[in-house]
Amino acid sequence: MSSDAPSPDDPKRTAEFEARIARGDVIEPKDWMPERYRRQLIRMMSQHAHSEIVGMLPEGNWITRAPSLRRKMSLLAKVQDEAGHGLYIYCGTETLGVDRHELLADFLNGKAKYSSIFNYPTLTWADVGVIGWFVDGAAIVNQTMLAKASYGPYARAMVRICREENFHKRQGYESVATLARGTPGQRAMVQDAVNRWWWPSLMMFGPNDKDSPNSAELIRWGVKKKSNDELRQRFVNLTVPQAQAVNLTLPDPDLRYNEATGNWDFGQIDWDEFWAVVKGDGPCNRERMAARRKAHEEGAWVRAAAAAFAAKKRAAAAGAAA
Amino acid sequence: MTATRSDDAVPGDSQWPLWEVFIQPEPGAPHEHCGSLHAVDAEQALLNARDVYARRNEGVNLWVVPSQWITGSTPEDVGPFFDPANDKAYRHPQFYKTPRGVKVF
Ligand SMILES: [Fe+2]
Ligand SMILES: [Fe+2]
Questions:
Q1: Could you read off the pLDDT of B6-21 as tens digits, one per residue?
Q2: What is the ipTM metric for this complex?
Q3: How far is residue B97's CA from residue A65's CA, in Å, rounded to a whole number?
Q4: Which of A12, A53, A156, A285 could form a disulfide with A86 if both were Cys (CB 3.0 to 4.6 A apart)?
């Protein structure tokens, strides 16, 4: 990836670019853009792509132990979708002039970040349902906004992804609802999963607005249309009635409806935990990175074999033509 | 098309050439660009395109084209490039008058 040195962007062109953003223009790959816009997009989009790929691991953990064939088929299809999401976004990022192999190298070398939520373990089957409900639910809130991002390839990837995410959330919520009306043991298991995933899900939206300079800059560039806190509030407002509908309790004694604002007020997020996980000290950071490196390294022979086979076919075709 | 890049994570690893994917959403519709992918050759590009971009019957036909073979116009020249179309109102039906009294044309 390019260095972080400030680049001498032409002030006149930058002003024209900002006017385009203000008009609501969609920026396309070959359009002129400030170096800072390009770099922020590469950072954000590649983190997003890495998150989709790492996001396959916590749920992938349960594919072989899904309690029925129906649940196993859904989970397989969902995890496969997440691989697709990673690919859409990597390809979108490549339109900014980076190669996927550079992005992957940065990720596998630990230089790039991914969403902190995937550093938590999936301890029981109920976690899979709760992830679909909370984590994909939060992703929908975020990605619905990003479908209007100022960068065309990113926005188009988000439109495609949003269409698929609804299935992810629905299958998760259905599984949660089933457990919630099941045996006392099943109820306890799903309540425990809710208790563990609620706060990390709220952290998915990132730091509070006052502590998020990146977010403010992305809003200025029209990449994001809403702030972290606005998105988080929207997610809480959507999720509380869904929890009530299946008689599950969200683990926050401060959660209450605010008549004046029409929002569900919620308690203080543990930002120390958030930063610890971001910096690499979550319950599963090392395990996730090790799993990705292993998959990449153990897949090397497949990539080499495919390249060799294609070369052989090309040679045979050239021989036949001669 | 044979250009392979060494991968920093795995020495000698290849990332394969880039292909653009076009999908025909339904019979009779034109093909639309839907994204890109890496593949070793056209056959693998088609299979990957099916798995990445058509998991839910999004289309009835796929095209894959090596990205390097696509030539696009330059956004910077959008003015001069499309200029010939700007002052030719006579190419549109609204330019012409129909005699009064002709209700349906
Ligand atoms: Fe996803
Ligand atoms: Fe998802």
A1: 344 444 566 789 999 9
A2: 0.87
A3: 74
A4: A53
